[in-house]
Amino acid sequence: RQCLQSVLNTNEFGAFEIIVVDNYSHDDSCQMVKNEFPQIKLIRNKENLGFSKAVNIGLEKSKGEFICLLNPDTLVSDNTFNKLLDYITLNPNTGCIGPKILNPDGTLQLACKRSFPDPFSAFFKLIGLSRLFPKSIRFGKYNLTFLDENKIHDVDAISGSFMLFPKLIVNKIGAFDESFFMYGEDLDFCHRIKQIGYNIIYNPITSIIHYKGESAKTAPYDMIQLFYIAFHKYYEKYNDQYTSWKLLHFIVSFGISIRKLLAYLKIYSTRIISILLDFSSILFSFIVSMFFWYSNYYHEIVTISTLQAHWLLFLDFILCWIISSYWLHLYKKDYLSYGRSLVVFFFAFFLSATTTYFIAVIAYSRAVLIITFFLAAIISAGWRIGIYILYRYRKINLSVRTPLFTRRAAVLGTGNESMRVGNSLNHTLEAHFILIGYISDGNQSGTDKFLGRLEDVTGLIKNHNINELIIPENFINIRELIQLLDKLSGANVNCKLVPKGENMLIGKGMVENLAGVPLLNIELPLFDNIHQFTKRCFDLILSSGLILFTLPIHLYFL
């Protein structure tokens, strides 16, 4: 609404048309456009076709001499179109022009003037050298930070959030490359304009505001993955323009991989901290067990050499711990579950002790393994129990809330019951919930925290780093609930049910009262390896006991 209103509030610049392409949005924006801006041509896609395809659909319907590609999360000044049209009219060799783009805080958005990302400039940006040395021609080349932001420049590329160009450019070079789903299409478009001899102009005579990322915030896609896929696609398309491409491709791929790794490390910092704590507990327990056992049983002085001589035993236990943790999903779902942690360490000890019987090189004293197992299991379960005490039940008051223990919650539905539950989450501070938003099977209704549709729940959970999914019982029936839990079996999320009349229990549950709203923790053993493992162990123990108990009877009748 604000974007369209800012366009309509600009000074007169001749006859114009506005085309809005809705790329399968989940809010009421289409209805808003129909009601408040009936003069605007609205095109509704039945699925998200990607940015390039949506733009091309709008280009096909456009009739103007000039085209302005404008993102919906922008606000234009009242003189933006006049100033830029005047410039492009007086300079017919201008293939595309863009204004000075500001962030909401008034700072310059660096993407409004760029060079084509050759491997070295991209690598310098990816590893952060461009930020450290913005005025360096070598390191600041990617975003041309060494250029005066208040002067007109002929650049390689401008931001796709605002691109003004003559329609004849599209006739000459073609529309946007639809192989770019998201990101990279603006660079490719500018690249093709440059190839036919036209200029790309950055003109700061007028400014716009761009709320970067707002239009993609609710997209149920891995935006980091899409960004780096576009990066690779761009280089593959224009690799013939770079000498020593194989070497440069390796350099760029390495830089992209490092940057992508850092981005994911930030997202998964919670699990990484948990893994490091458990690894530290194993290392500490192993060292203590070595000192305890060899000093008391063998009466030997334990040195660094003694520890180094047993490194294979330590490595064996670590590998068994990794296998157990992965198979039992310790760090994917309930990384604060001390019960699951104990089972993982028991299984790791069982595997490690078994391998020492078959591999002679690690057949050291198994007492070290036993002590390591007990001590590491106690420490691992202990810090988890401590977290529950400190952060869940406020036995000790702490003023600092770390990301490791945050309960980021989403509520299913946008009806009255869902809103009531959401309000309870917000007003129950002792539960440490942070309400991220609502997920529903319809469009946005009555809330500004609508995240997306239920069909995209897996992607929404990942993108918003949600670890608690609150499900009002009246929103979903049993069959749909089971299907949903099956769909989320690989996601890192705990599902909690708000029962209707407190009369519903599915599988193994734990009731948590939240300001009068009972939350029922849903856990279906069918979908969890740890329960399958426990059930199998129970079956083996029970069957073995029955065989031994009934053995005399079998022998008697044989």
Structural class: alpha/beta
Strand order of the largest sheet: 11-10-9-12-13-15-14
Low-confidence stretches: 396-404, 501-511
Beta-strand fraction estimate? 5-15%
Distinct helical segment count:
19
Terminal-residue CA separation: 86 Å
Q: What is the approximate shape?
A: elongated
Major sheet summary line: 7 strands, mixed
Residue-averaged pLDDT: 79
Total number of β-strand segments?
A: 15
Rg to the nearest angstrom? 30 Å
Give the proportion of residues in helices.
40-55%
Walk me through the structure.
It is elongated and about 105 Å long. The chain is of the alpha/beta class and 558 residues long. About 4% of the residues have low confidence. Among the domains are: 124 residues, no CATH class; 122 residues, NAD(P)-binding Rossmann-like Domain (Rossmann fold). The protein has 19 helices and 15 strands. The strands form four sheets. It has a seven-stranded mixed beta sheet with strand order 11-10-9-12-13-15-14.
